[in-house]
Amino acid sequence: AQIYEPPLQYSYFKRPEQLVGLTTSEDIKITFYNKDNELVDGNDPKSVAYTLYDIKIKPNILFANHPALAKDEAGQRVYKTTADIDWSDIDTLSDFEHMGTRELTAADYVYQIKRLASPKVVSNIAELMKEHIYGLAEYSEVLQQSCAQGECARDTYLNLNQHDITGVKIINDYHFQVKVEGMYRQFKYWLAMPFFAPIPW
Fold this sequence. Notes:
By secondary structure, the chain is of the alpha+beta class. It has four helices and seven strands. It has helices at residues 106-116, 126-132, 136-148, 187-190; strands at residues 8-10, 19-21, 29-33, 39-40, 50-56, 168-172, 175-181. It is globular, with a radius of gyration of 19 Å.
């Protein structure tokens, strides 16, 4: 929990246990809609066709310094591939000559949701999330097709940003939405788990 930061966390002091913001700037806004895309109060779960989770994150959160984020004076990445690195003197991260950081954005959280469906990542939660996040199952199928074309070999980079998930939308750098099938109140609690913590692409 000191390394991976999902949007929410549990309060260490409140009893009974309660979710509070970790990287979110305010409470997550949860709205319910019927099959006609009309806003409903959610008192009748059967009338809810989908739930929209509006998530806004705090600005000025930086990733820890890392060579993968190092940039030169022109703003280009110093280490684009492992071939750019002389590994003979590298044993730990501190052995890299160049380090860098950047700001955490909503796109990083969206990318992490995409990682759940990646064939190159073994995610124990992927199958469950495919049942609830709009478009995640279809996105997974697209990635499987990419793998069939050789894009998932061990030494290749699978670009998860080349396709979008229909139910996950970036509003701006600090705001994204997740569309969930029906009423699934547990989703908010999943947002406090490490598999929703962003890892930069």
